[in-house]
Amino acid sequence: MLRIVPAIALISVLSIPAFADDASPHVRWESAIAALEKKDAESPPPKHANLFVGSSSIVMWKLEESFPDHDVINRGFGGSQTSDSTYFADRIVIPHEPDVVFLYAGDNDIAAGKSPDQVFDDYKAFVAKVHTALPETKIVYIAIKPSIARWKLVDQMRRANALVQEETESNELLAFVDIDPLMLGEDGKPREDFLLGDGLHMTKAGYAVWAEVVKPYLKPRD
After folding, report:
1. Is 146 in contact with 184 (CB distance < 8 Å)?
2. Reported pTM
3. How many domains does the chain have?
């Protein structure tokens, strides 16, 4: 049985704005992006660091705890899709001139009805936008995770993962981190101890597993 997460607490953590599904990316996420820009202005992060962007699995990741010896920047915004990260890349990614960008997106895309091919196309658009401005930046795609809440969509998520993985194999500036098998128990289903009570978001134990496989891709601190 899934543990219950208080709705108010979860909404507070994710800061998901309550706009209609057909609102433009600018309208839907403007407040979240403006908050990140304000944070950057008040306390500018280092250039050439490791930048993480994407949906709530990035937002909730305590990167400084997972990677205390690396310069890390968290620019996730909860509930976002791959196309949202592309749309706002010139405001929350490119200005920091990161040496490595870690993208976790596609989970919400599939849940919203997008096909694996559309997720792949949106991923390629993200890569193109970042590499147009930062041609030497490495982009690491963290695979869409299997979860209890979205288990019925796992085949589509794995298809999207496979398309991205194949794309990364021919480009040394692209990489794919496959966390899918690491999230599963002996029964082949998602491990409950890696997921919060909503069956979707991650626990500290889950992030510890992610950190282990992500760490080799991080740029060391100068």
Report:
1. yes
2. 0.89
3. 1
Beta bridge partners of 74: 52
Which pair of structure tokens corresponds to residue 112?
A: 């919203």
| Alpha-carbon distance values, 24 to 29, 50, 55, 160 (Å) | 9, 28, 17, 24
Amino acid at 81: Q
Q: How far apart are CA 68 and CA 29, in angstroms?
A: 29
Structure tokens at 61: 């990741």
Q: How buried is residue 12: exposed, middle or buried, by Cβ count under 10 Å (0-12/13-18/19+)?
A: exposed
Q: Is residue 202 part of a domain?
A: yes
- pLDDT per residue as tens digits for the range 139-153: 999 999 999 999 999
| Other beta carbons within 10 Å of 64 | 11
**Any alpha helices (H) in the chain, and if so which ranges?**
7-14, 25-42, 56-59, 63-66, 82-87, 89-92, 107-111, 116-133, 154-168, 204-214
Q: What is the CA radius of gyration of the chain?
A: 16
> Which tens digit of pLDDT belongs to each residue from 88-102?
999 999 999 999 999
- Sign (positive/negative) of CA torsion 132, 136, 137, 143? positive
In terms of Cα–Cα distance, which of 194, 172, 174 is closest to 182? 194
In a domain, 222, yes or no: no
Strand partners, 168: none
Query: Residue 188: left if φ>0, alpha if ψ -120 to 50, beta else—which one?
Result: left
Type of residue at 41:
A
Q: Domain with 47 in it: what CATH number? A: 3.40.50.1110
